[in-house]
Amino acid sequence: IVARQDGQLQAMLEDVHYADVAEIVNGIDHIKQATYLIKLLDSDKTSDVLTELDDDLREAILKRLSVKEIADELEELDTDDAADIVAELPPERAKKVISHIEDKEHAKDIIELLRYDEDTAGGLMAKELVQVNENWNVLTCVKEMRAQAENVTRVHSIYVVDDEGRLKGRLSLKDLLTTSTKTHIKDVYISNVDYVDVNTKDEEVAKVMSKYDLEAIPVVDEMGRLVGRITIDDIVDVIKEEAEKDYQLAAGISQDVEADDSILELTRARLPWLILGLFGGLGAVFIMQDYEEFMSNPELQDLFFFTPLIAAMAGNVGVQSSAIIVQGLANDIVKGSLWNRLLKEVGLSLINGLALAVLVLAFGYIMNYDISFSLTVAVALICVIIVAALIGTFVPIVLDKRGIDPAIATGPFITTSNDIFGIFLFFYIAKLILHF
Amino acid sequence: IVARQDGQLQAMLEDVHYADVAEIVNGIDHIKQATYLIKLLDSDKTSDVLTELDDDLREAILKRLSVKEIADELEELDTDDAADIVAELPPERAKKVISHIEDKEHAKDIIELLRYDEDTAGGLMAKELVQVNENWNVLTCVKEMRAQAENVTRVHSIYVVDDEGRLKGRLSLKDLLTTSTKTHIKDVYISNVDYVDVNTKDEEVAKVMSKYDLEAIPVVDEMGRLVGRITIDDIVDVIKEEAEKDYQLAAGISQDVEADDSILELTRARLPWLILGLFGGLGAVFIMQDYEEFMSNPELQDLFFFTPLIAAMAGNVGVQSSAIIVQGLANDIVKGSLWNRLLKEVGLSLINGLALAVLVLAFGYIMNYDISFSLTVAVALICVIIVAALIGTFVPIVLDKRGIDPAIATGPFITTSNDIFGIFLFFYIAKLILHF
Question: Bigger pLDDT: A175 or B353?
Answer without folding.
Answer: B353
